[in-house]
Amino acid sequence: MREFGYQRADDVSGAVALLAADPDARFLGGGTNLVDLMKTGVERPARLVDVRELPLDAVEETSDGGLRIGATVTNSDLAAHPEVRRRYPALTQAVLAGASGQLRNMATVGGNLLQRTRCGYFTDLSKPCNKRVPGSGCSAITGEHHNHAVLGASDHCVAVHPSDMGVALAAFDAVVGFETPDGPGELPLADFYLPVGDTPHRETALPAGALITGVTLPPAPVAARSRYRKVRERASYAFAIGSVAAALDVEDGVVREARLAFGAVASRPWRARAAEAVLTGAPADGDTFAAAADAELAAARPLPDNGYKVTLMRNLAVAVLTELAEETAR
Fold it and tell me: What is the pTM of this model?
């Protein structure tokens, strides 16, 4: 590991100023991803600006009835918060589906949004990777890619985003707040992650040097009837090979509102808007749910070894939507 400097920030503006003064610095939250990447040499910051003690560790109600989650709230505290559990149960389920208890105690909301892909070629410095070294090539396309993207990928990168939390946040229209040397800003999560295109190394639309300060969840009554389901290759903690966050509001057998997002299928949490369009106003039955999943997955472009994800995601979406519809009907 490269030697690096360390400095703890006392306030948000001070943290932003410290990073602005050193272009090779990185913010340090829980460090559960960044420090691992430093050990392998993928990340080589000259300085870490520790933001864990900043006053960004609260979950608060907003004036319109939503929730604002501070960037340094740990995953464990987020999952256990009573208002998150009551209003956005899929978010609690998604957080608890990720990592181990020890990691959740360290990991933070801001860091979770910025965690890097778990593509093996990204962390293998002996192999080309456009995300790590722009223009070097993508080893996964012709190599090991059975866990890689089937939606929104490009000829330059087929890596997937690893966040479980992000999938639920995408379904609930979360907005990311940040601070820069020029002042505060916001980005809807739908615009937060950039399309892969030919620049997979540019992962987010955050301005250079910006510090994530929190995430706002707008009020969404439908979210109270929501679920997160994750499929992984082992029962203990592992990253998803497919996941679904769904919320459903059904009245007299008809879907009034639906939220659906997919995980582990693209370089970002994938909001399934084509599926939502099919669901809204349609009978809440298996045929509708299958048609909705098919509409979303029509854009899938699998590689030779990850075509199973299309069937997996179809079955997963239908199963979760069916369970929610049955619970609503009771």
Answer: 0.96
